């Protein structure tokens, strides 16, 4: 996540991406009507002239050992310091980092 990777592949190729890949633009009304009427093609294993043993889970070289949802992150905080006393603000920050075991 958050990175880039350049690949070369023979066609046909299948790409999968995370839904956060981009932010879609607002569409015009004619485009929305066209999209609502569009009937996309649906492919299954019989749609391809390939050996069935090369398709699906059996044909996949990738084995997923575990799938999980990471726990939500805790909200951050703000240390509002006194511009006249930066040492005190830094001390508060260091104390918080020690408390959270970010530094040891």
From TrEMBL:
Q: Which Gene3D superfamilies does its entry note?
A: HUPs
What InterPro entries does its record include? ETF_b, Rossmann-like_a/b/a_fold
**Which top-level group of life is the source organism from?**
Bacteria
Q: Name one GO molecular function term.
A: electron transfer activity
- Name of this protein: Electron transfer flavoprotein small subunit
According to its UniProt entry, this protein's organism is Candidatus Hakubella thermalkaliphila
